[in-house]
Write a structure and sequence with these properties.
It catalyses: Mo-molybdopterin + GTP + H(+) = Mo-molybdopterin guanine dinucleotide + diphosphate. By secondary structure, the protein is α/β, with parallel strands linked by helices. Strands 1, 4, 5, 6, 7, 8, 9 and 10 form an 8-stranded mixed sheet that branches. It is built from 8 helices and 10 strands.
């Protein structure tokens, strides 16, 4: 089966105050830190106003949300990746998860079993649907939800066959799953990063 890596970078970053994808941490943009966990061949889904900025940074495969679902959140981003690329399994990652490790993403990919539509980790009791693997066969379900403007990803998970994985069972540190939504989250990055080094 053909595998596609997808980085979602289309959020408005309202709570953060500026586009999170391009915020520098330890000399790299946050999206670059997340992308490292996916590998070199990565498709980026973003907002129209960010496309040029990604391309100026050397990213070649960058798309905006497919019509008619522009600006409709992560589900639109996943749908767009399905529509724009030729793949079967899609590793999906949000750009504001800079501490996620490549080994964790590879373990999730390894755990995709026959018949499952998705592999989704759970860390500290929290389901992590934007650090996950999805099969393209869910595309009609995605289309229906987007058409109905049902944008909660939890609704999607309730309609497909999901293999849930406890993060500790694949050797993942809870710190990997930090999601940068606010400046306070960003200020905690160093501490969380240090806990990864001690692991």
């Amino acid at each position: 089966m053909k595998h596609v890596n997808v980085l979602l970078a289309g959020g408005a970053s309202r709570r953060f105050g500026e586009p999170k994808a391009f915020v520098k941490w330890k000399g790299r943009m946050l999206y670059e830190c997340a992308k490292e966990a996916l590998g070199e061949q990565t498709v980026i889904i973003s907002r129209p106003e960010f496309i040029d900025r990604f391309q100026e940074n050397g990213e070649n495969e960058v798309y905006q949300d497919a019509e008619p679902f522009q600006g409709m959140g992560p589900l639109a981003g996943i749908y767009t990746a399905f529509k724009k690329t030729d793949g079967d399994l899609y590793t999906v990652l949000s750009c504001d998860t800079p501490l996620i490790q490549r080994r964790t993403m590879l373990e999730l990919k390894r755990l995709m079993i026959a018949g499952a539509d998705a592999v989704v980790p759970i860390s500290d009791g929290q389901v992590q649907p934007l650090i996950a693997i999805y099969h393209k066969r869910i595309m009609p379900v995605l289309y229906d939800q987007l058409s109905e403007k049902r944008l909660r990803i939890s609704d999607l998970l309730g309609r497909i066959s999901v293999c849930y994985v406890q993060a500790e069972n694949i050797g993942a540190n809870p710190a990997e799953f930090i999601n940068i939504n606010t400046r306070d989250d960003f200020s905690c990055l160093e501490e969380k990063s240090n806990s990864l080094k001690r692991d």
